[in-house]
Design a protein that fits this description.
There is one protein chain. By secondary structure, this protein is mainly beta. It has one helix and eight strands; from the N terminus they run E-E-E-E-E-E-E-E-H. The strands form two sheets. It has a four-stranded antiparallel β-sheet, with no helix packed on it. Strands 5-6-7-8 form a four-stranded antiparallel β-sheet, with no helix packed on it. The chain starts with 20 loop residues before the first strand and ends in a 20-residue tail after the last helix.
């Protein structure tokens, strides 16, 4: 699909496409416009499409998605433009968001477990944020 040319101006690391992912008979690809798609590998038909991030605020997709069992993982780029980065997990069959973990923020938004650093408490503890 045709994409908004203004997205190029905010893409981290130039206009790049680092690849595709495959799982459950689908090709999963990202687009520079912040959308993630799953295409039927045999027919090319779009099975689902979701918005992951918004280029209008400087957030883009430059990396390849990663499929792990029934989950598609992908993160947003744009920290150089003040974007709060996140790793997103989508259901491979439906495209539904399963969870999102931000790079900064409260323990809950970063998705830290209560014992995440029990062996190295000098590096930080639950409840202190990032």
């Amino acid at each position: 699909p045709k994409q908004d040319a203004s997205t190029k101006a905010v893409m981290c690391c130039d206009v790049v496409d680092r690849g595709l992912a495959y799982g459950a008979g689908q090709i999963v690809k990202k687009q520079a416009n912040g959308r993630l798609l799953a295409l039927d590998a045999k027919t090319g038909k779009t099975n689902w499409e979701v918005e992951v991030c918004d280029p209008k605020v400087g957030s883009t997709l430059t990396q390849a998605p990663f499929v792990a069992k029934d989950t598609v993982l992908i993160g947003c780029s744009g920290a150089e433009l003040g974007v709060r980065g996140a790793v997103n997990a989508f259901d491979l069959k439906t495209g539904e968001l399963k969870w999102r973990a931000f790079a900064t923020g409260s323990d809950d938004s970063v998705r830290l477990a209560k014992d995440f650093n029990k062996d190295n408490p000098h590096y930080g503890q639950f409840g202190l944020g990032t």
